[in-house]
Amino acid sequence: MLQLNYSGLDLECGTDEAGRGCLAGPVTAAAVILPTHFKNQILNDSKQLSEKKRDSLLPIIEAEALCFSYTHIYQEEIDTINILNASILAMQKSIAKLQPAPEFIIVDGNKFKPYKNIPHETIIKGDGKFLSIAAASVLAKTYRDKYMNTIHEEFPMYNWKQNKGYPTKEHREAIRKYGITKYHRKSFKLLPSQLALEV
Predict the structure, then answer these.
(1) Where would I find the H helices in 35-159?
(2) Annotation-wise, does 10 bind a ligand?
(3) Which residues pair with 69 in a beta bridge?
(4) Which family does the entry's similarity section mention (predicted)?
């Protein structure tokens, strides 16, 4: 089972994002503070879990967490401030919504910017080590997937319901065939040869 706490402080929040490598849609982050007695045998890095397991964990995390939140940063802002800054901004906006505010922040990965004066630690592969980061990864992934399923209805030819905006062969073929939508990240290399893409 994953560890519950890194800092030894009760109000420790875990944060993670989903959708960094996608060609379309937002980058979504979540932040979660779990109670000191929280236990769950199934909870893990969202990438290790099936969609069915993530969907079953979502209400458990939301019911048992002391507090949680999530934030979408959309493609226009990603194109303006770049994906790394957008990912960090999504995490910080999620942390800002937590009530009570955290005493310590643990972040999946190795990049973060100090938030207010709350101490933080970046943890590589943290979503496979700490329950609160894993919980944040499940929320971020699930809420982002729901959003991609919704915009799929508007542009079904890209099959976002299936690929969630990631650069699959099928997604790239659709871009080649139909061009791009308002949901695509224009700052990303959308096709291997940019020549084929007329913006």
Answers:
(1) 51-64, 75-81, 83-96, 131-152
(2) no
(3) 31
(4) Belongs to the RNase HII family.
Topology at the third CATH level for domain 12-152:
Nucleotidyltransferase; domain 5 (3.30.420)
Q: pTM (2 decimals)?
A: 0.94
Number of residues written out for the chain: 199
**Structure-token match 């040869």, residue found:** 193
Is 17 annotated as belonging to a binding site? Answer: yes
Q: Is 127 annotated as a binding residue?
A: no
In the sheet that 67-73 helps form, which strands lie side by side, from edge to edge? 67-73, 27-33, 12-18, 104-108, 120-123
**29, 32, 80 from 96: Cα distances, Å:** 12, 11, 22
* Secondary structure class of 94 (helix, strand, coil): helix
Residue range(s) occupied by CATH 3.30.420.10 in the chain: 12-152
Cβ(15)–Cβ(131) under 8 Å?
A: no
